[in-house]
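Q: Given only this backbone (138 positions), what sequence would you predict?
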């Protein structure tokens, strides 16, 4: 078992998923852009646009956000060899999915929802030996 995981309940790993994550991030922006432009609003081109979209059109932003976890590329992250290898190093012999992936969207100055690393894992479905994978997109 990974000593850092055993001691702290969390490990930090490097992956070879940069291109995949970059492409997922582009898909996220496209979904928010569609929610905005299909409703006659300005295009979403970057993070600042997403933040402003959320502030000014929260219901539309939420409709886009709710779609993100259904993207096939998001689910496929859990089956990446580098992720499976690390999970097994933590002592989980047969990793399984218990639910669709959950996605958090922490925005700047959104202090009411800020959590320390892995503090919100208790709200997720699964067992006591569940694994939470954090992937910052910025």
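A: Predicted residues:
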């Amino acid at each position: 078992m990974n000593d850092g995981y055993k001691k702290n309940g969390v490990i930090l790993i490097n992956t070879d998923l940069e291109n995949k994550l970059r492409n997922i991030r582009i898909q996220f922006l496209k979904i928010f852009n569609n929610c905005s432009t299909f409703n006659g609003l300005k295009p979403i081109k970057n993070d600042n646009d997403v933040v402003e979209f959320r502030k000014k059109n929260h219901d539309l932003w939420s409709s886009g956000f709710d779609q993100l976890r259904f993207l096939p590329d998001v689910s496929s992250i859990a089956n990446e060899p580098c992720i499976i290898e690390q999970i097994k190093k933590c002592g989980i012999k047969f990793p399984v999915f218990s639910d669709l992936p959950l996605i958090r969207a922490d925005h700047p100055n959104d202090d009411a929802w800020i959590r320390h690393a892995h503090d919100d894992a208790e709200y997720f479905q699964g067992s006591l030996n569940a694994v939470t994978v954090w992937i910052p997109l910025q």
